[in-house]
Amino acid sequence: MSTITLVILVSVMVSVAGVMYAISQMFSSDNTAVEDRLEALTKNRGRGVAPSEKKSTLLKSELEGAPNAIETFVTRFLNLKAFLYQAGWSWTPAKFISVCGISGAATAVAYAVFVPYRSITPVVFVIGVLLPLGWLLFCKKRRLRRFGAQLPQALDLIGQALRAGQSLPAGLQLVAQQTPDPLGPEFMTCFEQQNFGVPLEQSLMEMTERIPNLDLQFFATTVVLQRQTGGDLAEILDKIATLIRERFTIFGQIQALTGEGRLSGIVLLALPPALFLAMLKLNYEYIMMLFRDPLGQKMLAFGIVMQLLGAAAIKKIITIKV
Question: Is this structure's pTM higher than 0.85?
């Protein structure tokens, strides 16, 4: 059995296994979302557990669980549960891994069927596996960016609620009701946690663990310090909101000034792969010398290393922290 036939066979088996897993997940009898949420919020109340075990409630249920062997192995390299939560996906890590396998198998099979040059089918399989991961990272980055853009308005609402004589939990509830996803549900989770007896400081810190946003950490730290030492929290929140808006303004100016560099980087990084695919179509035997000849393999490895170093250098130049 040739290598190409073996890859196609494994791809088909992975596709079948992924479809069977998806069907089993579809018809599984899990608890409802409301029951899971109430259980997560109340499972540590009145049990007399140690303080170290009481550290997390809702975060433990949403970002942790009973992982299987595949999830345990993947978690060594990538925290899939946190990434899925931050991207706003309700998938389990096992389901996401199955989708990656199906994507890689389908891509490899489609390439082997429709493209006559099958020697790079394993590479196509790896690319297909990485496609869902790339989309997950894109969704996570977009959702966190939207969360950061909503935060100044949320701080303004909390400050107005405090000036009107309401408490801080009431301000959190107001933000949760007035702000859409993703910020609204996170503040509602924080409000519900402290409603069920979790200390407000702990619920705020758990929210910063779920959402890795620097401005949110400033807000949580400010609330914790204010509750310990006192002070005008409304005025502090107004200053934080103003600081965040000024940072967004500066960031927009930097994006405009570095636009040419980012475009140049995209062109320079995309040109070698595009030229490789063009030469693969025009002169297959010529480009295969890079894989068959020892000198060609060294040149290919050197080119890939230089490509990665160039990408890192360009990113370092155009990335300016605000």
Answer: no
